[in-house]
Amino acid sequence: MTATAPSFLKIIPPPLAAGFLLCVICIASLLLGAGDISPRDALPVLFGGGSDEARFIVLELRLPRTLVALVVGAALGCAGALMQTLSRNPLAEPGLLGISAGSTFAVAVMLMLGASAATLAVHVSQLGALAGCLIVLSAARIQGVGNDPIRLVLAGATLTGLLLSLTSLMLMFDQRSADEIRFWVTGSVAGRNLEDLYRLLPSLALALALILVVVRPLAALSLGERAAQGLGHHPGRIRFITVLAVALLVGSATAVAGPIIFIGLVVPFVARAIAGPDIRRTLWLCLPIGPIILITADIISRLVVAPAELPLGVLTAIIGAPVLLLVVRGKRMPAL
């Protein structure tokens, strides 16, 4: 059963409301956080003023992590929506199904072989995500698993546990790799810079192009293979392009922020509750809703145990776990 959108959304278009809320959250991310400056000290920086200390903290520390969280949130939200539509499974999520773990494992292997994380992380992470996607979709096609969301998630959790265990085992024997890979294991946007973000732009642009190509056929495929074929689409081609787009999105996000789970589950859930099951409308709303949730979690992680920070993955798990239970129980779950 499709959830009914809140009444105020009948007055304010959801994309406009989400865009406005995203702007507010981004400003809050620049003004709030651990450090010696208060929001009153940080506010003048947004207008070109402020002290040198305030400008450094806002522009060199908070701005890059806000932009990274914006891109990562949008990428993971869209990847989750694509995976759920492709598998016709509301529990499909990169962090739950081993896709993020595949990225982490691939990067760990390359670091063990002496590669540089700065130059190879993005591409290696994407290859690992692609391998994870293919394993998950292959498992989904096994009789009885693809029709059972719980069994599919259990299979994904098994794959995730296996890959993360192998990653931890490898890092025990190489301290250099352990230091470089540490943030991939926990998930965080702290300490990132704009150069990390620039490396993602080509991959994200390609993923966007693939999504624009596949979104209409994917909407037809969600009605069933026969319906898609009747409309002149090729299901095999649709799946390949969608998997490639998901690999680019998840691999890019994991390369810069590590494996952040539940964002790909929560964001499509919220978007479908507002926009309905149409993947085209859902994807449009995932673009602002993903960053809203991730940046909000990042702000909370800075403030709740200040001056220290909670791992971002812990906050996203706290947010996502109740949504997972809600989806499993099937109450008020937007239809796919």
UniProtKB/TrEMBL annotation:
The keyword Transmembrane helix applies. GO terms for cellular component: plasma membrane. It comes from Marinobacterium lutimaris. SUPFAM superfamilies: ABC transporter involved in vitamin B12 uptake, BtuC (SSF81345). This is Iron complex transport system permease protein. Belongs to the binding-protein-dependent transport system permease family. FecCD subfamily. It is a multi-pass membrane protein. The keyword Transport applies. CDD domains: TM_ABC_iron-siderophores_like (cd06550).
